[in-house]
Design goal:
Elements: E1 4-8, E2 21-25, E3 34-39, H1 46-57, H2 61-74, E4 76-82, H3 84-100, E5 106-111
Antiparallel strand pairs: 1-2, 3-4, 3-5
Helix pairs in contact: 1-2
The protein binds L-tyrosinamide (TYC).
The site of L-tyrosinamide has 13 residues, from strand 3, helix 1 and helix 2.
Length: 112
C-alpha cells in the first residue's frame, strides 16, 4: 500500500470547470505487528513459565501449559502478536519477572 497519485482528467472533477486537477492521496498504512516469543532453557521451572503466560498473556491454565510445553519441546514459540509498544511492554514484564525470580527465561520480539 504505497502513495498513489490519482490523476483526474480534465472535466472529471466536481468544480464545474475544465481545469486539470492533480491530487495525491496518501493511504494510511497498518502499523507493523511484532511477534513476542518465549525461548526454552534448562532451568526455569515449568510452572513459572505457565504463570507468566497466564499473567501477561491472558491465557487460561490449559492454554499456558500447552504453549509452555511447545517451547520446552521445540525451543521457541510465539506467545502473541502485538503493536510495537505493547510487544515491548510484554517483553519487559516477562524479563523483569524472570530476573526478580532469578530465572534465565528469555523473551524476545521480532517484526512479523
Ligand atoms: N525447559 C524448562 C524445564 O525443563 C521449562 C521451560 C519451558 C523453560 C519454557 C523455559 O520458555 C520456557 N524446566
Amino acid at each position: 500500500m504505497r502513495k498513489q497519485p490519482v490523476i483526474m482528467s480534465a472535466g472529471k472533477d466536481d468544480d464545474g470547470d475544465f481545469g486539470v486537477a492533480l491530487e495525491t492521496r496518501t493511504r494510511t498504512r497498518r502499523p507493523p505487528m511484532y511477534k513476542v516469543m518465549l525461548l526454552n532453557d534448562d532451568y526455569t521451572p515449568m510452572e513459572f513459565v505457565v504463570h507468566v503466560l497466564e499473567r501477561f498473556f491472558g491465557m487460561t491454565h490449559a492454554q499456558a501449559f500447552e504453549i509452555m510445553l511447545t517451547v520446552h519441546k521445540k525451543g521457541v514459540a510465539v506467545v502473541g502478536v502485538f503493536s510495537h509498544e505493547i510487544a515491548e511492554t510484554k517483553v519487559t514484564q516477562v524479563m523483569d519477572m524472570a530476573r526478580r525470580h532469578q530465572h534465565p527465561l528469555q523473551c524476545t520480539m521480532e517484526k512479523e
